[in-house]
Amino acid sequence: MTLPPLGYYDHFLRDVSLPRMWGVRVDYEDRRVEDVPGTVREELLGCSALKRAAGKRVALAVGSRGLANLPVLVKTTVEVLREQGADVFLVPAMGSHGGATAEGQRLLLEQLGVSEETMGVPVLSEIEPVEIGRTEEGMPVYFDANAAGADWTVTIARVKPHTSFRGAYESGIVKMNVIGLGKQKGADFCHARGMENMADNLEKLGRISIEKSNLLLSLCVLENAYDHTHMIRAIAKEDVLRTEPDLLKLARTLMPRIPFQNLDMLVVDEIGKDITGAGMDPNIIQRFSSEHMSAKPFIKSLVVLDLTDQSDGNANGAGFADVSTRRLYEKIKMEKAYVNALTARVSASAKLPLIMDNDLTAMKAGLKLAGAADGGRARIARIRNTLCLGRMEISEALLEEAAAMPNVRTAEGPAAYAFDEHGDLPRGGFLY
Q: 314-354, pLDDT tens digit by residue?
């Protein structure tokens, strides 16, 4: 699709004005793991399953999400396993990510700081899995071929609420076994009956996968509202199904949120697969790809300004937005996002929003769509991404509400946005 020439929409937006903005800080519970490598080591050594790794060939499975401290988590786990006498190698546990190719998944790991050079062990990436069992209904359960050929598999998994379904097991250890290590085939079969049946499918497939796979243990990570490592637990295979639901409940309490309701416009500086699988977390924006999710809409117009470089062109999540920029559009690689959409059988998050020339016209268009051309009265919030909600910008129309909230502190402002000669904002923003 050819975009209109630069400036084409300017005359439609000439009467839209942007308000002055204030920088605010939002306080959340910030308990975190201060010594990440020490805690990883302590947890692994305290897990009775670890001794079975001695003298064995062990696959360490790493996902595509941007976990805080991921290189440290992986490096320390490698070190502990090797100290036990294990022969360790890494495998990507990414389902259909990376364009559902072996090389694409290896490159994703490298972009996250996990490579043969940084970790000191081989990275074996293979996209074609092997079948390790079937459910009572006959659904096949797949597992990474390289991992299945090892004596044991260890996973590093973050437990958190999923972006498209609710169940006893959402994002976490079970999902990494079924979908991450199941590769595109595993992901495809798990989504086969639609998102409304995803939780049921995941549990059924998960029980077979946990039983039949060579999973030894999982290093489970929970993160707090500031994207800091809140908890690290080493969980033996036999304890996964019993333990993970309680960890999911805890993870749900740790999630941040936008503290304002009835927004005319939310501006999100960046989306990306390194932020969340959905590009931006639907739990935060309350826009979901599945009609079976219960949403509480509070945003009239959603504007997205950019796509992270780490996403490698996968603009999954852009479809949640109403407006975006030429910059984001030109980064899109359809083959990256569409594999996810076809595998998950949902298209909403992979669709295109309205594309404007730059940040200025995108934000003006967002206000116009919200019916709030007079920016002085518009209720606007701007965030960096849905992982970073400790700091944000709000318009003057939200100041009174912010002042009444015990966990919101006004930090800087007011100030008008200073766009550059291309109509764009400095990346990171002036009030963050």
A: 898 999 999 999 999 999 998 877 877 777 777 778 889 99
Amino acid at 323: V
The Cα 268–Cα 429 span in angstroms is 11
Look at residues 96, 91, 133 and name the one whose alpha carbon lies nearest to residue 114. 91
Q: Distance between CA 69 and CA 113 in Å, rounded? A: 10
Q: What is the pLDDT of residues 219-273, one digit of tens each?
A: 999 999 888 999 999 999 999 999 999 999 999 999 899 999 999 999 999 999 8
Q: List pLDDT tens digits, range 119-166.
A: 999 999 999 999 999 988 888 999 999 999 999 999 999 999 887 778
Long-range contacts of 401-408 (CB under 8 A, 24+ apart): 401/260, 402/22, 402/24, 402/259, 402/260, 405/259, 407/26, 407/27, 407/28, 407/259, 408/24, 408/25, 408/26, 408/27, 408/259
Tell me how far apart the alpha carbons of residues 388 and 3 are, in angstroms, rounded to a whole number: 31
Q: What residue type is 68 in one-letter code?
A: A
Q: Which CATH number fits domain 36-254: 3.40.50.11440, 3.40.50.11060, 3.40.50.720, 3.40.50.300?
A: 3.40.50.11440
pTM of the model: 0.79
Tokens in use for 25? 């800080």
DSSP string of 212-241? HS-EEEEEEEEE-TTS-EEEEEEEEGGGHH
Instruction: Report the amino acid identity of residue 295.
Output: A
C-beta separation of 162 from 68 below 8 A: no
Alpha-carbon distance 394 to 256, whole Å?
A: 17
